[in-house]
Protein 1
Amino acid sequence: MKPLLTLLAGVSLLTSVFAAPLQDAQKGGLVLKNVSALGFGPEGLLLVADSGQSAILAIETGDTGPFLKLAAPVADLGSVVAGGLGTTADQLTFIDLAVNPASGKIYLAVQRRPDNATLVLTIDAAGRVLPLDTARATWAAVTLPGGTASKVTRITDVAFDGDRIFATGSANEEFASRIFTLPVPVRHGASAAVFSAETYHVAHRKWETKAPIQSFIPYHAKDGRYVVGAFACTPVARFRVDDIDSGAKVKGVSMVELGSGNRPLDLFEYTDASGKEWLVVHTQRFKDNLFGPSKFWGARVSMDYVNAVEDVNEKAVWRDVKENKGPEGIEILDALFGAVQVDRLGEREMVVLREQDGRFSLEVAALP
């Protein structure tokens, strides 16, 4: 197969126009091995979780605006991307999607079979698809530690939080679920701090240490800094991450149970027109569907549950799996049926990569 970066026409060099928070940055030569998640820092700083290298890559894109959202839906995106990669749509996997908050541009991590090569694509407001030029980028990489006799097996998510970057994943030992932190500025060649996470899985009615956080957001509450994440089967839990030494074990508090048989894909927070805060949990059903037209679906959860003072765990609120709403503060979002990937766009919208009848489309949808 042809080299990935030569397959899509119109490649343009993304130059750095700001002093990105990197130390000992590298110029060119960046190789992606197994991208598993994308995120963004300020001023177009792209965060790439590369499970193949057990590392977080911070990349200066120079993509700093102006902010322009996707003007019209992109129909049959799979065929557009596949044509540029010399393959067919059924040989592609869309791994993750992230919107650059500085520009509104959409970034997609894509894997191609059978060689399992991965790359990052960008989609601008006009719907033009281009590859990110990693070969000439300015970047820094930080390795995520496994354990004394283990390694990181997968990085599930990554997010920027002011003076640090958080990542989640798993290692092949008893306390497998991990939360990682990287200080900002990001210094190339450094190693991250690591915490082992223990979580009460409400549907299983037991404490577990192996299942990793699938997706998360950093969250600042009145009483401190948290990581709020969702797990398979599907508890939503919070982890206090203030003043914790590397190597410590962190016990989570499960607040909400969205239902067994689901795997979270994306999380983000937003505030509606009334000023109420919501957590959007986008997920995939891996058992028989109990509701709705697709195995891909999502719900919004009131942040009042996350901010609750008491440690709930065994008393976590269960979603009514047979209804679109209930209990109060938990609602199915119809716009997320069929969504393969999703991320927030601005304050009140989201970008949705949707699958229907084997075809993928990209669109902007309103948040309620």
Protein 2
Amino acid sequence: MPDDATKPTAEVIELRPAKATKASEKKWGKAVMERGFCVVPSLLLRAQPRLKLTPTQLAVLMHLADYWWDVARKPYPSKKALAERLRLGERQVQRIIADLEKAGFVKRIERIAKHRGKLSNEYDLTGLVTRLKEIEPEFRAVEEEVKWKRRAVARPGLKDRRVDSSTP
């Protein structure tokens, strides 16, 4: 048997430290982050009024997003699981999802097992993604305008070149 001292040791070198994980751990704590996290675009939160989402509808969307980890695999939590997380009745969750579907944000896809009958629905969030992509340019334009105005205020005498661009 070879001696442990003669075995080559494998050294693992981390190429890039996980900055996001470290930053989130600094904010929330390592133990909290180890329980998982959900990636959601800030635009969804900022555009809530524009999308005419009630707080409860937004909460349902957030929970659906928490189940959606792979772009190729749609989330399929049960209404019971969503109801327990949200402290709502299953029927309330069903109505909220129906409203989200009517608004075009979610599409319910029935799942049926061959030998076990009906399974929980699968939820396609393509409508929500598409809507966010549609309104993003408007939000970006406003943010750029605000950024330009801040610069203009900081530098007295700075002209708005966009307005004066037609003059020689």
Protein 3
Amino acid sequence: MVRYHYALVDDLISREEFDRRIEAKIEACGNLTDDVTAALMVVRDLDRSHVPIKGLRGRSSLFCFYAKVLACSEVKEFDRPDGNKGLVARLTVADETGQTDLVFWDEQAAAIRESFEIGEVLEVIGRHGKSLKEILPLNLRKTHVEINCGMTPKEHKQPERKDFDLLIISLQPAKSFTRRDGTSGEMISGIVGDTAGTARLLCWDAAMLTGCTPGTAVTAAGALEKEGDFGGREIVIDENTVLTPAEQRPDIPHILLGEVKPDQTVTVSGNLVQVQPPRPFTRRDGTPSWVRNVRISDGTATLPLVIWDDEASRPLLPGEKVIIYHVPARVGRTGETELSLGRGSCLLIVPDGPGEPVTIDGTIIDTPEGKVIDDGVQSFLVEGPYPHGAEIILQGVVSKKRLFVTGNRQSELSVETLRANLNELLQNLG
């Protein structure tokens, strides 16, 4: 049992040090406590003690929490892909902050009704299942902790098919998947928005989105709407959905930064007032990634924004205006409400004002600050699939030090220009 408690702090101390601290706790208590209680004391000393159920939305690998049993499901039998039978059952548990499901499989599922009673309070050590709305328990024990939650189990509503006018905000590359019947397909995820706000998009037939790019408005007839596995809305497009061009682009509501509360998924806009450089780090699975800390302000408040993964290495300038779609808010380490921008969110850099229309005939150059177009006199940051060294003509709007591209074409160098460039190169070579 102690090994599960150690998993809560395995990124902080070694197992040997953990065992040493347990022995020290037992000795300090005059040998009147057991290993489990001492382990909990060590975990608490390392600030990794019990979290409220609403804190289970975080992405830690393991959680420890107290919860009261609200309901016990029937044991359901299902067929595994290998043809064998399986069993699954759920305990709905809650505290004062929310509720979640504990999922049990096979032998544990079969014994669930004899093992637990409604109203009992459990101490749970577990990890996420297939979604953030369920926990796979690794260790359970009954406790005498009191929880007065006054809740009833939530009904698991089946998603309904509706018609939506959607703006496509972002799309991820298509991914292959295997259906239950063994056939393969391609799916696309992304972010969409409508007059009700933003939602995660799941399209189980990538061909349906052919020709659709960020900024495209579509009508999705017969799409499914449900609560997403990671919180917030989720809109599913499948073979029963019909996509057509929308008559008008929907307006997506924004929230002021001063109104943002923890545990919300919001769309906000503002100006970057502090921009720290990206920092490399290594994930628990050993893969490298990036993280970046900035601050965003809209006049009503200034909030910290944590940017993860590839977005963290994107060129950003202090003072630039941004719109951030579908970003979760949480309580940061300092107790301040912060925004956490990962793969489920989208950051757009937009002109701060009308800007100046320009046409620039120049060269694409990769610099430490980012990709720029340089015409020999001036240079501007640009975003797009422009390779280093490409000679290109870009039309767009200049805002601060960035060119927002509206059109492009290959630069056509005249014989005179080529001859002048060659003469200049020869002179530089002496």
